[in-house]
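pasting for the record
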Amino acid sequence: MEDGLVEGDGEVATPGENSRDILKAIISLKNGLYKKIDGVQTKITEVRKEIQECTGRLAHAEKRISDAEDNVNGLISKVSTLESTVKTLSDKVEDLECRSRRNNVRLVGLPEKAEGLDMVTFLEKWLPEALGMESRETLVIERAHRIGTLSNNDPRSARPWTLIMKFLNFKDKERVLKAARIKGNVLYNYELVRLHPDLSAGVHKMQRVYDDVRKKLRDKGIHKHRIIFPARLLLTHGDRSYTFQTPAEVVHFVRSLGGIKASLYATLTGKYA
C-alpha cells in the first residue's frame, strides 16, 4: 500500500500537508469569529451604555413627574382656595353694588323729552299723580338721568331710553314701587310705562331664570306672583303665600295643586322638572 494519496492531477498530497491546511483554515475561521465576537461585544457595550443612560433619564423623569404631581396637588389646593376667595369677594361686591342701588328705581317706556329740562322736578310732580298717591306724600328725588348706549342699527334704539332715579329716602322708593304694584298699569299720555327696582347685572341675571315659568303662570291665569330680592318667587294662591328658591320648586308646587293645574304642570316639566 502506498504512503501518499493520488490527486486528480496526478500529484500526491502527504498527510502533513493536509493537516497544515486544516490548521490554517481553523485559525482563519477562529480569527474571523474573534473579529465578529469583538464587534458583537462592542455593540453590547454600546447598548449597555445606552440602557444605563436611559435608566438614568427614566429615573430623572420619574423624579420630575413626582415633583410635578406634588406641585399640581399643591396648585389644586391653592386654586380651590382662590376660587373660594373669589366667590366670597364676588358676593361682597355684588352685595355692595346692590346696596349702592337700593334707593334707585328704573322707569321704562317714558317718551323721550317728556321730562322737559328739569327731570327731577318732573318726576317729583308726575309720579304721585300717575300712581294715585296722596298729595301729602311728597317725594324727594336726589338725581335722575336716562341711560342707554344702543347703536342706530339696533331695533331697540327706537325705544325711549330707560330713566333711572335715585330717591333721597329708601322709604320713598318703597312707597313708589308699592303704589305701582297696586296701580297695575301706569300710563303717561295713554302710553304704558313700567317701574322696576334698579338691580345689579348679577341679580338681574338670577331673576331672569323665572321669566319662562312666570309667563306660563300668567297664561294659566295665576297672576299673583312677583320676584323678591335677590332671586325668589313669591306666589299667592288662595289665602296663602308661598316663596320659591328656584323655578323647579314652582313647577313642583303647581303639580301639587292638581285638578285644572295639571295642564300647566305639563307645559313646565319639560324645562324644569
